[in-house]
Amino acid sequence: MPAARISLDLVGITKVYPSAVALNRVSLGIRGGEVVGLIGENGAGKSTLMKVLGGAIAPDEGEIVIDGQSAASLTPAGALARGIAFVHQELNPFSNLDVAGNVLLGRELRSRPFGFIDHAAMADRVLPLLHMLGARFQPSTPASELSLADQQLMEIAKALSTNVRLLILDEPTSSLTLSETQRLLNVVRRLRADGVAILFITHRLAEVEEVADRVVGLRDGRQAGELHSGEINRDAMVRLMIGRDVQQFYMAPKVTEGPVVLRTRGLRTGAHPGARVDLEVRSGEILGLAGLVGAGRTELARAIFGIDPVQSGQVEMNGEPVASGSVSASIAAGICLVPEDRKSEGLFLDFSLAENVVMPNLAAIATAGFVDRRAEMEIADQSRRRLSIRAPRLDRAVSELSGGNQQKVVLAKWLGLDPKLIILDEPTRGIDVGAKAEVYRLMRDLAEGGAAVLMISSDMEEVIGVSTRVAVMRRGAIAGILTRADLSEEAILSLAVG
Ligand SMILES: Nc1ncnc2c1ncn2[C@@H]1O[C@H](COP(=O)(O)OP(=O)(O)OP(=O)(O)O)[C@@H](O)[C@H]1O
Ligand SMILES: [Mg+2]
């Protein structure tokens, strides 16, 4: 039986952290059957607002009115009991459990009469949800084996497995490709038709344009205004978020045929041992690497950088072979990798922004084993300005930054190294429009300065907008390479799907 439609109002919500006012008297209402897009720059307060709704944090002021009942704050259990389900921006799967165990965590199905966990019944409950989302993994797949995109789908399945009346999605598509995103948007439409309210947070404005009935903008922790259907377009949303237009968004580097910097010869990775990759990236170019999730792009990047051992084949930099399976050899050869998963690979969350930024470059600012703190602060401050990282203090733990600002710290960390080849894996994941333009400018500067840039991206607009050439991967192999003149969404997709 469908539950009654939710009626929810946040009134004058304020949340103050020691170093920042995250929310400043924000009011927002939502009713069952509508999709509200919540947009704002990195650090604007979106995730904080959602955590208030999910009961993860208590606001300092304001009230939450659900179905006419007012409360000063919610608990996670209270939120769940009222039908509020939440997909967090930061994924925290239990890697010792399988998918079904994660999806039904705390609500495990048990067999009678002994009360053992009934794995078969749990799998039966979870499988239809995975089908609906187009997931290619099973209820019995260990969570530790899921890619970031699959983790995201698992979290969405988890939210859908509850008796949901308000679904909150915080950057649900940041790791998803086109087809998975479309499926998710269809699920959102179906839930809306069933009377569910959906709060949708994303930096991919095209998605907001596609599904939102109403858009609410946050700026510096304040409600900056609303857009109603008919007014929802990219330019209006950008103005709502940052108060001005962003022009010259995409710009590919000037095409100069530089020498080949990176060459892979017959490279085979563990993920796709049947496929060989022969790829060249030239000085001065941004080579986009497109493909569906699971096509093997991240694995290729990790193999080139020496994180994962290769099955066979060779990586060459400027004609010289690089010892395989060695990160230090790759760094010595001038390669750097900006990883996709900032939490597990890119950042030390308990360390400060400044410490994270200078970490790859410690040798340059340390004498006799002591780090020059002043130099560290200067470098960090430069990065903060260059990437407009919204951080009140450089010496505070990175875990206090918003998701998008954490991503910028990962970028800053590697951009300082002056690499010969820089591999960026989903560099703008979760980054707002203004900062995206900044990241593209930095990539272009690196390329025009002679570096070779290899950019993995699932954002079609971005791949087409900034790449000099695009290599499309399918099942671990390069399915084709498109030059700038041939670039189109259809051309990329047809190579990706085969
Ligand atoms: N645990 C925390 N401790 C201290 N400050 C925090 C904490 N969490 C968030 N903040 C601060 O609150 C502000 C709002 O952060 P929030 O995560 O809500 O931003 P956001 O809009 O979700 O950004 P993004 O688009 O990057 O995800 C930021 O200034 C952030 O640094
Ligand atoms: Mg956030």
How far apart are the termini? Answer: 43 Å
User: Which small-molecule ligands are present, each listed once?
Assistant: adenosine-5'-triphosphate, magnesium ion
Q: Number of DSSP helices?
A: 18
The overall strand count is 22
Rg on CA atoms, Å: 23 Å
Mean pLDDT metric: 89
Sequence of strands across the biggest β-sheet: 6-7-8-3-9-10
The percent range for strand residues is: 25-35%
Structural class estimated from helices and strands? alpha/beta
Descriptive notes:
- It contains 18 helices and 22 strands.
- It is of the alpha/beta class.
- The strands form five sheets. The protein has a six-stranded mixed sheet with strand order 6-7-8-3-9-10, sandwiched between helices. It has a six-stranded mixed sheet with strand order 16-19-20-13-21-22, with helices on both faces. A four-stranded antiparallel sheet has the order 2-1-4-5, with helices on one face.
- Strand 11 and strand 12 form a beta hairpin.
- Helix 4 packs across helix 5.
- The longest helix has 16 residues.
- The two termini are 43 Å apart.
- The model has no long low-confidence stretch (mean pLDDT 89).
- It binds adenosine-5'-triphosphate and magnesium ion.
- The site of magnesium ion (MG) has 6 residues, from helix 1.
- The site of adenosine-5'-triphosphate has 22 residues, from strand 2, helix 1 and helix 15.
